[in-house]
Amino acid sequence: MDTQNVTGNSTGSHSGGLMRLDHCGWERQRFIPHAVRHLDHTTYPILLFIATVGNVLTIMILRKERPYGSKGIYLSAVAVIDLLYM
Fold first, then answer.
1. For the chain, is the Cβ count within 10 Å smaller at the N or the C terminus?
2. 3-state helix, strand, coil in the chain (%, to 5)
3. Alpha-carbon torsion angle 7, 10, 14, 15, nearest 10
4. Rounded to an integer, what distance in angstroms lies between the CA atom of residue 21 and that of residue 19?
């Protein structure tokens, strides 16, 4: 079944970049699958919390040990930049 775009012209499978309407004239909506919503609302905040705790612990440990070598300074900088980026 052909759909009509905003201008009222009948189109096939390609709408030319215009909004597609269903048979009642309403704009078609894309429904987000449950797995994607679960990822957005549950998994990402948990990963953000774990990463934040890990970076704070890394900074505390490296600050206590006074990283004089290049490895310690580099790890401290990576932890700080990671916290700022998140």
1. N
2. 55, 10, 35
3. 10
4. 7
Give CA separation, 12 vs 19, 47, 58, in Å.
Answer: 13, 43, 57
| CA 5/CA 8 separation, integer angstroms | 5
Per-residue pLDDT of the chain (86 residues; tens, 9 = 90+): 445 545 554 455 544 556 676 677 676 667 667 777 777 888 889 999 999 999 888 888 887 877 678 888 888 888 888 888 87
pTM score: 0.51
Mapped onto helix, strand or coil, the DSSP state of residue 4 is strand
What radius of gyration, in Å, describes the C-alpha atoms of the chain?
25
Question: Domain segments of the chain: what residues?
Answer: 1-30, 32-86
- The predicted pLDDT at position 18 comes to 60
